[in-house]
C-alpha cells in the first residue's frame, strides 16, 4: 500500500522529473551489481531535491538514468509528463534541451579543443535555437550570468581555474533554458571559497529561472544549504526522504542518523559535544546485498525482523505527510529510535 | 605558538621552498614557522596551492632536487634542513612519518599488508621476519582493523578505502614516531569512514602522545580534532590560534572569508531561508614573485595603502590560557597560547560571526583588542 501511495504522490502533474520504481542492474562476469534497486523520486517545478549517500550507494546512477545517459533496467522515468524510459537516442535528441547534467569534474567534461564560447553555445547550435550574432549575444549573456568576463569566450578550458570551468559547465547546461538540471557533485572538486560562489550561483540561477534540480552530493552541508528536500540513499535504495530542515533537525532512519552524526561541523564547541555514531563493518557488496533491510548488517538497532523482511519506504504522520522513511523501527507516527543509544531502543 | 615548557616535537622556523625551472621561479613556501608539541594536533588549513603539502613534503625531506629549501626544521633537537639523505632515511619512518590522501597509490599492490607493515619494523628496528609479522598484526589491531591476523594476509586491493588508510596509519606509526604528518588523510573517504579514521588519529595522540600535523581543507575536520590551527595563504602563514579562538574570533580577513564560505548546518534552518554564502572575490595570486606586501591585499576589503607596500609579519594579537580538555592525561591543566595574525588591520573581535556568539572557553575577551595587539 505504501508503495502505491508513494508513486501516486510522485506522479503529480507539476513534476518536472518523476522517477518511479527505478532499477538499474549491471551484469558482468562477477555477477549482477544491483546499483539501483527500486527508487521512486519526483521533483516539482522550481524545486531542488538533494540526493545524498556515500560512494557506491547508486546516487550517480540515479542521476544518469534521470537524464537518460543510462538506460534503466526497469521502472519509469518521466520528464515533463513524457515517459522517456524507453526512447531511443534519436527520439531523445529533440527532448534533450529540457534536461541537462552538470558533472563533478569540469576539466573532463569540457572539450579541451573547443573555446569556452563554442562550448557554451553548442547546445543552442545543436538545437538550432540561435546562430550567428544572436548566438554570440546569447553566449555573452550566459557568461555574464554565471559571472565570467566576456573575453573568456575566446579561451580554452585549460586556461581557466577550476571554479571558472564549473561556471562554464553551468552556463552550457542552462543555455537552452532546461526545466530540469541534474548536478552530480558539482562542487566536490572545488576549494571552499570557490565552492561557495558556485553554490551561490546555482541558488541565484534557480531562483531566477525556476528549473527543477536534482543535486547529487555527499556533502551534507552543501545539500542542506541548497536543497528544499533531501532523499538519502543506501546501497541502491532510498531509506529516507524529508524536507531539508526537518531531515537535519530530526533524522528518523538509523542510517541517516549515523550519516549526519559522522559529518563534522565547523564549530569546535558544537563538535565536541556531539555524539558520533560509528558504524561497524563495511558497506556490503551491491553484488549480493543483504536480505531484509539492506542496512541491517551495520545498524546498531537491528532486530530479527530487519534481517528477513525488507522495509518499504512509507509515509509517516509527522511532518504533515511530507516525510518518508524505510525502517521497521520507526513508528507510523514518526517516533524513531536513537541510533546513538542502542540500549534504550524500544522494540515495536 | 605553544609557550609551554616542554620543547616542541617539531619546530619549523622561517621555512622557504623555492622551485626553479629554466622558465620560472615559484615561491611555494615563504617564511613559514610553526611548532607542534607531543600529543598535540596542529591543523594546517588553506586552499589548493597555498603550500600546505609542499611544507610537509619539505619537512619529510621528500622534495625533488629542483626545490631549494631555506630556514630550519628541527625534529627533537635535530636539524633536518641540509641533512644528508642517509640521515633523513634514518629519521623518516622512525621519528617522523607521513600518511597521504590516496592510500592505494602509497601501498605496494603485490605485497600483503602484513608484510608491508612488518617491513618498516625490520628496516628500522632490525627485528626478524616472524617477530615483525606478529608486531604487524598488533599494529593492524591498534588501528582498528577487524580480524587483523587474517587481514594481514590480504593484498591492498582486497581492502576498502577506509581499511587501506588504516593500514597506512599502521605503517606510519610502526616505529612509534614522535611526529605524524597526515596530508588530507580523509579527503577521499566517505564521512562514516572518515569518522573512524579521525578516531584512530585521536587515540594515537592520547595513547602514544604522537604530535600530529593534520593538513586539510575541511574546516569540519579541523573543528573535530585540532588543538591549534595554522591558516596558510599563498605560501605564507597568515593566522595561528587555538582552535576555539580561531573559529570564534578569527582576526585575519582571509580566515574570516574561509569560515564564512562554508555552509554551516542549521544556519539556514535558523534564518528561515537560504542566505548567501560569503565569497572571497578574486583569485589566489601566482607564486612566481615574492611581493613585499600582504599577498591577500588585492582581495581584501580591509586593505589600505600600507597593505600594498609592506609585508605584515605574523604577530601576537592576543595571549590566552587554554584548557587542555582534549588531553586526558593532563586534565585540569591549562597552557599558555598565543593568537597570531599577519595583518596590518586584524578584524576587531566584536565583529564576531553571528553563529559563534558565545565563547565559553574564554569569556574574558578584551574590550579593545586593537590596543592589546599594539603591544
UniProtKB/TrEMBL annotation, chain A:
<dbReference type="InterPro" id="IPR027417">
    <property type="entry name" value="P-loop_NTPase"/>
</dbReference>
<dbReference type="Pfam" id="PF00005">
    <property type="entry name" value="ABC_tran"/>
</dbReference>
<dbReference type="InterPro" id="IPR003439">
    <property type="entry name" value="ABC_transporter-like_ATP-bd"/>
</dbReference>
<protein>
    <submittedName>
        <fullName>Peptide ABC transporter ATP-binding protein</fullName>
    </submittedName>
</protein>
<dbReference type="GO" id="GO:0055085">
    <property type="term" value="P:transmembrane transport"/>
</dbReference>
<dbReference type="GO" id="GO:0015833">
    <property type="term" value="P:peptide transport"/>
</dbReference>
<keyword id="KW-0067">ATP-binding</keyword>
<keyword id="KW-0813">Transport</keyword>
<dbReference type="InterPro" id="IPR003593">
    <property type="entry name" value="AAA+_ATPase"/>
</dbReference>
<dbReference type="InterPro" id="IPR050319">
    <property type="entry name" value="ABC_transp_ATP-bind"/>
</dbReference>
<comment type="similarity">
    <text>Belongs to the ABC transporter superfamily.</text>
</comment>
<feature type="domain" description="ABC transporter">
    <location>
        <begin position="17"/>
        <end position="260"/>
    </location>
</feature>
<dbReference type="InterPro" id="IPR013563">
    <property type="entry name" value="Oligopep_ABC_C"/>
</dbReference>
<dbReference type="Pfam" id="PF08352">
    <property type="entry name" value="oligo_HPY"/>
</dbReference>
<dbReference type="GO" id="GO:0005524">
    <property type="term" value="F:ATP binding"/>
</dbReference>
<dbReference type="GO" id="GO:0016887">
    <property type="term" value="F:ATP hydrolysis activity"/>
</dbReference>
<keyword id="KW-0547">Nucleotide-binding</keyword>
<dbReference type="InterPro" id="IPR017871">
    <property type="entry name" value="ABC_transporter-like_CS"/>
</dbReference>
Automatic annotation (TrEMBL), chain B:
<keyword id="KW-1003">Cell membrane</keyword>
<feature type="compositionally biased region" description="Basic and acidic residues">
    <location>
        <begin position="325"/>
        <end position="342"/>
    </location>
</feature>
<dbReference type="InterPro" id="IPR003593">
    <property type="entry name" value="AAA+_ATPase"/>
</dbReference>
<feature type="domain" description="ABC transporter">
    <location>
        <begin position="12"/>
        <end position="259"/>
    </location>
</feature>
<protein>
    <submittedName>
        <fullName>ABC transporter ATP-binding protein</fullName>
    </submittedName>
</protein>
<keyword id="KW-0472">Membrane</keyword>
<feature type="region of interest" description="Disordered">
    <location>
        <begin position="325"/>
        <end position="375"/>
    </location>
</feature>
<dbReference type="Pfam" id="PF08352">
    <property type="entry name" value="oligo_HPY"/>
</dbReference>
<dbReference type="GO" id="GO:0005524">
    <property type="term" value="F:ATP binding"/>
</dbReference>
<dbReference type="InterPro" id="IPR050388">
    <property type="entry name" value="ABC_Ni/Peptide_Import"/>
</dbReference>
<dbReference type="InterPro" id="IPR003439">
    <property type="entry name" value="ABC_transporter-like_ATP-bd"/>
</dbReference>
<dbReference type="InterPro" id="IPR013563">
    <property type="entry name" value="Oligopep_ABC_C"/>
</dbReference>
<keyword id="KW-0067">ATP-binding</keyword>
<feature type="compositionally biased region" description="Basic and acidic residues">
    <location>
        <begin position="350"/>
        <end position="375"/>
    </location>
</feature>
<dbReference type="InterPro" id="IPR017871">
    <property type="entry name" value="ABC_transporter-like_CS"/>
</dbReference>
<dbReference type="GO" id="GO:0005886">
    <property type="term" value="C:plasma membrane"/>
</dbReference>
<dbReference type="GO" id="GO:0015833">
    <property type="term" value="P:peptide transport"/>
</dbReference>
<dbReference type="InterPro" id="IPR027417">
    <property type="entry name" value="P-loop_NTPase"/>
</dbReference>
<keyword id="KW-0547">Nucleotide-binding</keyword>
<dbReference type="Pfam" id="PF00005">
    <property type="entry name" value="ABC_tran"/>
</dbReference>
<dbReference type="GO" id="GO:0016887">
    <property type="term" value="F:ATP hydrolysis activity"/>
</dbReference>
<comment type="similarity">
    <text>Belongs to the ABC transporter superfamily.</text>
</comment>
Amino acid at each position: 500500500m505504501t508503495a502505491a501511495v508513494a508513486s501516486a504522490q510522485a506522479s503529480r502533474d507539476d513534476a518536472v522529473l518523476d522517477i518511479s520504481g527505478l532499477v538499474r542492474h549491471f551484469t558482468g562476469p562477477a555477477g549482477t551489481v544491483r546499483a539501483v534497486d527500486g527508487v521512486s523520486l519526483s521533483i516539482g517545478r522550481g524545486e531542488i531535491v538533494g540526493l545524498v549517500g556515500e560512494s557506491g550507494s547508486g546516487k550517480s546512477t540515479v542521476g544518469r538514468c534521470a537524464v537518460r545517459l543510462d538506460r534503466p533496467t526497469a521502472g519509469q522515468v518521466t520528464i515533463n509528463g513524457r515517459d522517456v524510459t524507453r526512447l531511443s537516442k534519436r527520439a531523445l535528441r529533440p527532448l534533450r534541451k529540457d534536461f541537462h547534467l552538470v558533472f563533478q569534474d569540469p576539466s573532463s567534461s569540457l572539450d579541451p579543443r573547443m573555446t569556452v564560447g563554442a562550448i557554451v553555445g553548442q547546445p543552442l547550435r545543436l538545437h538550432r535555437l540561435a546562430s550567428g550574432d544572436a548566438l554570440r549575444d546569447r553566449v555573452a549573456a550566459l557568461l555574464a550570468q554565471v559571472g565570467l568576463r566576456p573575453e573568456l569566450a575566446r579561451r580554452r578550458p585549460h586556461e581557466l581555474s577550476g571554479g571558472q570551468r564549473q561556471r562554464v559547465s553551468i552556463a552550457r547546461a542552462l543555455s537552452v533554458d532546461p526545466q530540469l538540471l541534474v548536478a552530480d557533485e558539482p562542487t566536490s572538486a572545488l576549494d571552499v571559497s570557490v565552492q561557495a560562489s558556485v553554490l551561490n550561483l546555482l541558488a541565484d540561477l534557480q531562483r531566477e529561472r525556476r528549473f527543477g534540480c536534482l543535486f547529487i552530493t555527499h556533502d551534507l552541508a552543501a545539500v542542506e544549504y541548497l536543497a528544499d528536500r533531501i532523499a538519502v540513499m543506501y546501497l541502491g535504495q532510498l531509506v529516507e526522504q524529508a524536507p531539508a530542515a526537518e531531515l537535519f533537525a530530526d533524522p528518523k532512519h538509523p542510517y541517516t542518523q549515523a550519516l549526519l552524526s559522522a559529518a563534522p561541523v565547523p564549530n569546535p564547541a558544537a563538535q565536541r559535544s556531539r555524539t558520533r555514531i560509528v558504524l561497524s563493518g563495511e558497506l556490503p557488496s551491491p553484488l549480493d546485498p543483504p536480505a531484509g533491510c539492506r542496512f541491517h548488517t551495520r545498524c546498531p538497532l537491528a532486530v530479527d525482523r530487519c534481517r528477513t523482511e525488507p522495509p518499504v519506504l512509507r509515509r509517516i504522520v509527522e511532518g504533515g505527510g511530507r516525510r518518508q522513511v524505510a525502517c521497521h523501527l520507526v513508528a507510523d507516527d514518526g517516533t524513531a529510535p536513537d541510533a546513538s543509544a542502542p540500549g534504550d531502543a524500544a522494540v515495536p | 605558538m605553544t609557550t609551554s615548557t616542554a620543547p616542541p616535537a617539531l619546530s619549523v622556523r622561517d621555512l622557504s621552498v623555492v622551485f626553479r625551472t629554466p622558465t620560472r621561479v615559484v615561491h611555494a613556501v615563504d617564511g613559514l614557522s610553526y611548532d607542534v608539541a607531543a600529543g598535540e594536533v596542529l591543523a594546517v588549513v588553506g586552499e589548493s596551492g597555498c603550500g600546505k603539502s609542499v611544507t610537509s613534503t619539505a619537512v619529510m625531506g621528500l622534495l625533488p632536487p629542483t626545490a631549494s629549501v631555506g630556514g630550519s626544521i628541527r625534529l627533537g633537537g635535530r636539524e633536518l634542513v641540509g641533512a644528508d639523505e642517509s640521515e633523513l632515511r634514518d629519521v623518516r619512518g622512525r621519528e617522523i612519518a607521513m600518511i597521504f590522501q590516496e592510500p592505494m597509490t602509497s601501498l605496494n599492490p603485490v605485497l600483503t599488508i602484513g608484510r608491508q607493515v612488518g617491513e618498516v619494523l625490520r628496516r628500522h628496528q632490525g627485528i626478524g621476519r616472524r617477530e615483525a609479522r606478529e608486531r604487524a598484526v598488533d599494529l593492524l589491531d591498534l588501528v582498528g582493523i577487524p580480524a587483523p591476523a587474517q587481514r594481514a594476509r590480504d593484498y591492498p586491493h582486497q581492502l576498502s578505502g577506509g581499511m587501506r588508510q588504516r593500514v597506512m596509519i599502521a605503517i606510519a606509526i610502526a616505529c612509534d614516531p614522535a611526529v605524524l604528518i597526515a596530508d588530507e588523510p580523509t579527503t577521499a573517504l566517505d564521512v562514516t569512514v572518515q569518522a573512524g579514521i579521525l578516531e584512530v588519529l585521536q587515540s594515537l595522540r592520547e595513547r602514544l602522545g604522537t604530535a600530529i600535523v593534520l593538513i586539510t581543507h575541511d574546516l569540519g575536520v579541523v573543528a573535530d580534532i585540532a588543538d591549534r590551527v595554522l591558516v596558510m595563504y599563498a605560501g605564507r602563514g597568515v593566522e595561528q590560534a587555538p582552535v576555539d579562538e580561531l573559529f570564534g574570533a578569527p582576526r585575519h580577513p582571509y580566515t574570516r572569508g574561509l569560515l564564512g564560505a562554508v555552509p554551516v548546518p542549521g544556519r539556514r534552518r535558523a534564518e528561515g531561508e537560504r542566505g548567501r554564502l560569503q565569497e572571497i572575490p578574486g583569485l589566489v595570486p601566482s607564486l612566481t614573485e615574492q611581493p613585499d606586501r600582504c599577498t591577500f591585499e588585492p582581495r581584501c576589503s580591509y586593505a589600505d595603502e600600507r597593505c600594498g607596500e609592506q609585508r605584515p609579519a605574523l604577530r601576537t594579537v592576543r595571549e590566552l590560557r587554554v584548557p587542555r580538555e582534549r588531553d586526558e592525561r593532563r586534565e585540569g591543566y591549562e597552557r599558555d597560547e598565543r593568537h597570531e595574525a599577519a595583518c596590518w588591520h586584524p578584524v576587531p573581535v566584536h565583529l564576531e560571526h553571528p553563529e559563534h556568539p558565545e565563547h565559553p572557553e574564554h569569556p574574558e575577551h578584551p574590550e579593545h583588542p586593537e590596543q592589546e595587539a599594539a603591544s
